[in-house]
Request: fold
Amino acid sequence: MAARSRLARVLGIDPGLNITGYGVIEYRGREAALVEAGVIRLPPSNGDNLSARLEKLFESVREVIAEFEPEKICLEEVYSHAGYPRTAILMGHARGVICLAARLSRVSVISLPAKRIKQAVTGNGNASKLQVQRAVQHHFSLNGVPHPPDVADALAAALCYVHSQASGAASGSERRTIRLGRGSDFSKGLRL
Reply:
């Protein structure tokens, strides 16, 4: 009789500077169960409090990591639109502190493109927010769609990783794992 694979835990995060969604799931093979999902709400921007908001995000993510002890963190890549370059830069700040929180907690980060996440959970890489919410609702047999959509996006990122592990397609995402050794500088340790 083959040994049953062990239960693993993954944290999905949808980064943001106003609301950051997170979702923790446990999985074995393709079977995934919801452990916890929620949002981290940051103080509104007042023009000069970016550092304080990033610090709050960093501390909150560290708390979630400490409480749920995930083996991996799945993080949606920053989507940039030519018409909104400032948004991409600000999201880069949020992703940076999340990656730092993961690194200091010794948890690997898996970066996933939004289209790949949508494709994995809905079958359509161009799915709408509502389609992602409904797919996550269906997968976890929830009474309603996860709200706000940031929660569904975080859970979808985690599910995408689980599906890639179960299908053996993880080698593509593993190349995107961020692994920084002690004392490494970013130019040597960042593998994308």
In short: Residues 21 and 148 are 8 Å apart (CA to CA). Residues 8-189 form a domain with the Nucleotidyltransferase; domain 5 fold (CATH 3.30.420.10).
